[in-house]
C-alpha cells in the first residue's frame, strides 16, 4: 500500500506539461499544483471521470491527459473501459487509486475488494498496457517508462484509505472553484472559447 | 393537404453539419442504423460508441472541455437511466449540447402503451431541460433551434425524435 499524497509527489516529478484530472486525489494534488491545467472537478457524478478523461484526450491529442480515477468509479462504470480502448487515445494515462473502500462514505468495502484485478480487467477490455502496483518504490521506478510510451495505459495503485466520517454538511470544502469554472478556465487557456 | 416527408437520416446529418458537430457520442436505438451508416462514412465526424447512455455525458463533457462540439444520440430509456450523469456532467459543468433522443413508445395518435414514452416528457420537465419534438423532415429546423438554445442556456437541450428516422412507430 502507498499513501496517495506521497505517490502524487512522485508523479509530480514526471508530470511535464500534462493536463491533470486529479479526481480522487484532488485534495492532495491541489497542494502540489493548482494551475489552469489542473482540473479538480470534485465528483460531478460518480463513475464519469474516465469518460471525461477520454473526451478531453480525444479533443486535445497533442497534450498528455492524466487522470487519477478510483476503483469505486471503475466498478460503477466498467463499460467505459472498452470505449476508451476502442478510441485508443495515445495521450491518455489512466491511473486509479484503489483503496478497497468507499472512503467518503465511511469506509465500507467495495464489492470483492481484496480480489479484483483491475489491470487484468483493463487488459481484457482492450487497453494495450495495464499495470498493478502496491508499493511506492516499484511504482517510482516504473513511472518514467509508463509515461514515456504512448497510451492508453491503465495503472492501478493500491493506496491507504483516508476514511471520512464527518457528516457531509460539516466537511471543509477544499476546492476553490466550481467544476464549471474549472472547465471554462481550461477552455480559455486552450484558446477554444 | 400533403403530409410532410418522414424524418430522413440525411436531414439529421445535414443539421449536424450545419451546426458544426465534431463528435457523436452514442448508443444505438432501435432504428438508427441508416443514420449510423451515414455518420460512419463521414470522415469529419468522430463516432464514440458507449455501452451505457450515462457514460456519454461525461465523454461529451470532456470533448467540450477540450474545445470540440459533441452531440449525443441515445434513446429515451437510456436518457432516464442517465439522470445523475446529465445532472452532474452536463448541467453541472454547463455543457451546451444537443441530445437527440429516440422517443420510444411515442404515438401521435391513440393510446400510449409503453411506459418509456409515459415518463419521457415528465423526466425532462422534472430536470428543467427544454425539449423539442421532431417527427418529420418538416420539423428539422427545430434541431438548429435546439443548438442555438443550448449555447444560450449553456446546458443540454433535448430533441425528441418521435419518428425514429423512418416512421417506425406509425
Residue-averaged pLDDT of chain A, rounded? 95
CATH architecture of chain A: 3-Layer(aba) Sandwich
Indicate the proportion of strand residues of chain A: 15-25%
CATH superfamily annotation of chain B: Thiamin diphosphate (ThDP)-binding fold, Pyr/PP domains
- Strand/helix succession of chain B: HEHEHEHHEHEHE
Low-pLDDT runs of 5+ residues of chain A are none
User: Mind telling me the CATH class of chain A?
Assistant: Alpha Beta
Number of domains of chain A: 1
State the secondary-structure class of chain B.
alpha/beta
Mean pLDDT of chain B: 91
Please give the number of β-strands of chain A.
8
Report on the biggest sheet of chain B. Answer: 6 strands, parallel
The percent range for helix content of chain B is 40-55%
Write down how many β-strands of chain B occur, each being a DSSP E stretch of 2 or more residues.
6
Report on this model:
The complex is a heterodimer of chains A (193) and B (170). Chain A is α/β, with parallel strands linked by helices and 193 residues long. Chain A is 38% helix and 17% strand. Chain A has eight helices and eight strands. Chain A has helices at 4-12, 26-32, 49-59, 71-76, 80-87, 118-125, 136-148, 179-190, and strands at residues 19-21, 38-39, 65-70, 92-98, 101-102, 108-109, 129-133, 153-158. Chain A has a six-stranded parallel sheet, sandwiched between helices. A two-stranded antiparallel sheet of chain A has the order 5-6. In chain A, helix 7 links the parallel strand 7 (129-133) and strand 8 (153-158). In chain A, helix 1 (4-12) packs parallel to helix 7. Chain A is globular. With 170 residues, chain B is of the alpha/beta class. Chain B is 42% helix and 18% strand. The model of chain B has no long low-confidence stretch (mean pLDDT 91).
Amino acid at each position: 500500500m502507498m499513501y496517495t499524497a506521497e505517490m502524487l509527489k512522485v508523479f509530480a516529478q514526471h508530470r511535464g506539461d500534462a493536463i491533470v484530472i486529479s479526481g480522487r486525489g484532488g485534495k492532495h494534488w491541489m497542494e502540489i499544483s493548482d494551475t489552469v491545467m489542473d482540473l479538480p472537478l470534485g465528483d460531478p457524478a460518480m463513475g464519469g471521470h474516465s469518460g471525461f478523461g477520454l473526451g478531453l484526450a480525444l479533443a486535445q491529442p497533442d497534450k498528455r491527459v492524466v487522470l487519477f480515477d478510483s476503483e469505486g468509479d471503475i466498478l460503477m462504470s466498467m463499460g467505459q473501459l472498452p470505449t476508451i480502448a476502442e478510441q485508443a487515445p495515445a495521450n491518455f494515462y489512466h491511473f486509479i487509486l484503489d483503496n478497497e473502500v468507499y472512503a467518503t462514505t465511511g469506509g465500507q468495502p467495495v464489492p470483492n475488494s481484496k480480489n479484483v484485478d483491475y489491470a487484468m480487467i483493463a487488459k481484457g477490455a482492450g487497453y494495450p498496457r495495464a499495470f498493478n502496483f502496491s508499493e511506492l518504490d516499484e511504482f517510482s521506478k516504473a513511472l518514467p517508462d509508463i509515461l514515456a510510451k504512448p497510451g492508453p495505459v491503465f495503472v492501478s495503485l493500491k493506496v491507504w484509505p483516508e476514511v471520512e466520517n464527518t457528516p457531509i454538511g460539516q466537511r471543509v470544502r477544499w476546492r476553490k472553484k466550481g467544476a464549471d469554472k474549472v472547465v471554462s478556465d481550461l477552455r480559455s487557456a486552450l484558446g477554444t472559447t | 393537404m400533403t403530409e410532410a416527408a418522414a424524418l430522413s437520416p440525411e436531414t439529421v446529418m445535414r443539421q449536424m453539419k450545419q451546426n458544426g458537430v465534431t463528435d457523436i457520442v452514442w448508443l444505438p436505438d432501435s432504428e438508427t442504423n441508416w443514420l449510423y451508416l451515414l455518420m460512419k462514412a463521414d470522415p469529419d465526424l468522430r463516432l464514440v460508441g458507449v455501452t451505457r447512455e450515462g457514460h456519454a455525458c461525461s465523454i461529451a463533457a470532456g470533448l467540450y472541455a477540450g474545445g470540440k462540439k459533441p452531440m449525443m444520440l441515445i434513446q429515451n430509456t437510456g436518457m432516464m437511466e442517465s439522470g445523475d450523469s446529465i445532472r452532474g456532467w452536463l448541467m453541472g459543468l454547463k455543457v451546451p449540447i444537443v441530445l437527440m433522443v429516440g422517443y420510444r413508445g411515442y404515438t401521435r395518435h391513440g393510446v400510449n402503451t409503453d411506459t418509456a414514452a409515459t415518463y419521457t416528457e415528465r423526466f425532462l420537465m422534472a430536470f428543467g431541460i427544454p425539449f423539442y419534438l421532431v417527427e418529420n423532415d418538416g420539423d428539422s429546423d427545430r434541431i438548429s433551434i435546439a443548438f442555438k438554445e443550448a449555447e444560450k442556456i449553456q446546458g443540454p437541450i433535448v430533441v425528441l425524435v418521435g419518428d425514429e428516422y423512418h416512421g417506425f412507430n406509425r
